[in-house]
Specification:
mainly alpha; about 85% helix
Length: about 70
């Protein structure tokens, strides 16, 4: 059981790379890149997972700024 938990944690860290990069892109004003990275993160992490939900929140903020110019 512990081996599976460790393996799952390692997989989540790998998959969350796009999530971290998307948040960083958002922070520096690279909203087009943020949208692309966060869309990939949502797909990788799963829409119904906790991290996938967080990625969707960041994605929504990225969409808002990207298309409206309002933060």
């Amino acid at each position: 059981v512990e081996e599976l938990k460790a393996e799952d944690a390692a997989m989540q860290r790998r998959l969350s790379r796009n999530y971290v990069l998307g948040k960083e892109a958002y922070a520096v004003g690279e909203y087009v890149a943020a949208v692309r990275l966060l869309e990939e993160a949502v797909e990788e992490l799963g829409r119904n997972s906790m991290m996938g939900g967080e990625a969707q929140l960041w994605l929504a903020m990225s969409y808002q700024v990207r298309w409206t110019g309002v933060m």
